[in-house]
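Let's study my pick:
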Amino acid sequence: MERQDFDIGSGILRPTIKKGVIYVLVFLLALHVTPSLYVNSSLLSKFIGEEKVGLIFTISSILVLGSYLFIKRVLRKIGNYRVFMSMLAVDFLSSAVMAAVLLINSAHIEAFFISAFVICYVSRVLMILNLDIFLESQSADAETGGIRGFYLTSLNLAYVIGPLFGGLLIMEHLGPVPGVTGIAPVYIWASLLLIPMALIARKYLRPFVDGNYQKSGVFETLRKISYNFDLVKICGSSFVLNFFYSWMIIYMPIFLHSIGFSLSQVVSIVGIALIPFVLLQALAGKVADKILGEKELMTAGFIVAGLATLAISFIGSGSFWVWAGILFTTRIGACVVEIMNETYLFKKINANDVDILSLYRAIGESAYLIAPVIASIFLVFVIDIKYLFVALGIITLYGIRFSLTLKDTR
């Protein structure tokens, strides 16, 4: 009989899941999401106008926040593995619907596409939470920075490859609706990639034994976090970072498209800009574990991301490489802040603290709800979309308020 290893760090006999399996799954999940990530907002703007795009993301975020409130109850009832597989199936069907309606060019294409997009959005966010739980059950605090660094590097490698691959998949002049029908291959790819994910998960994640998920309500969890000022600060840092991501994901593709770049060029620019997430995050996580604390690196990250974002509004060049370079710089700062947030949080919690993890993710997700609303109001009073990035730069720099007062875990 094959020897079975167990993780007893949390006091629960839990079959060991190889971390490499989780790294592969998060890579595939991100590779499933990213080819369309920077196409979605431009495509939605074709259907409903750019001023209403933020509303779709806001509705999606409201549903995610609602899901976070109930996820712990569902985890206790059916377990993390079954929740993950259920969300994977929902995502598969929704991705297939998006591809089908783009190819068919239905008279009701907008309603079908938008509904499927919202469902996909929710299912993908919940799958990330599931993978967080799988990984945290196998992580020791002394190695958290390195483990989370490799995890995020696996995820972000796909964030680099995905947009570049998406640019190759897009055939902008295909079919009766140029710029719409030609995007269908991106969503076909997304649905097909979930098949190997399901096979890997079924083979390697099925033995997972769930921990004792705490029975605590939202207000009780809020009270628990509020007594730990460092967790409050890391939640604030997460909110600022996700606010940054929200505006970049929704409005940067629209802006780049408006100044003359094609959709395939936009996804290529974004793919290049995301390279720092692959090159720096694992290294930054190890540095936080062994040399510097999270506080110093997080502060530097906010400064770099904030100043580079401010600069976006004042660039007059139409050069592909100039725009790739400035977005590359913003992501140097963002990737360091992200790994410091993750490292700090997961050193403070364990796999049973789903209530804290869910609330942390919900606070980050709330930025995707609030940010589009603020941007929509801003765009009513400001004619040029480029000035959104002045505001975003200032908001990003505000993150320093949280990082400078953080107490390092070292």
Q: What stands out?
A: DSSP finds 16 helices and two strands in the chain. The two ends are 42 Å apart (CA to CA). Confidence is low (pLDDT under 50) at residues 1-15, 172-179. The CA atoms of residues 256 and 262 lie 8 Å apart.
